[in-house]
Amino acid sequence: MLAPTHMRQSEIDAFLQAKSRWIERTLSRLDQVPRPPPFASGLPLAYLDLTLRLDWVRTGYAAGVQRDAGILRVAAKDEAQARRAIELWYREEARHHALARIIHFAPLVGRAPKRLRIAGQKTRWGSCSTQGTISLNWRLMLVPAALFDYVVAHELCHLIAPHHRPPFWRELVRVMPDCEERRRRLHDMATQLTL
Length: 195
Prior knowledge:
Layout: H1 9-18, H2 20-32, E1 44-47, E2 50-58, E3 64-68, E4 71-76, H3 79-109, E5 115-119, E6 126-128, E7 133-137, H4 145-157, H5 166-175, H6 179-189
Parallel strand pairs: 2-4, 5-7
Antiparallel strand pairs: 1-2, 3-4, 6-7
């Protein structure tokens, strides 16, 4: 624990005693948080509505990723290189899937983006700039396809209404009547995503 240098040990002890029940409850909750499985062959990897299995081969050559049915084969020298290669593969897959979904939803919305950007935002699933660029998080490949669709439709609707006031929500409901349910599901999943 860190404490200001001017605090006496008796003050620190008193503070810890006063907060002991909160500390115990918090530590108990942290113990209940599931730990991600170790990064090794056999690791399940989410991919839209599918679950792929990692097949990791250690190699001294350049990293490579190949999908073979339900297997994601990764050749890399170490875990860090394997993770980077997998992220790059997910980013490319996200770009292809996003373009297909934009082609599907743009006619329903009546607008298309000027540019698509795949990024790795820490706190957002997507965004839409005033210049018409839609940015999507590559981690959308880790959620069910219906939730990926929700983010695409949501960002396309921002091309019409660049805010979250009632006209925006009316447009989104018109395009995707069950958008609120999808939004809730996406929010619930956000804390579970790891790679």
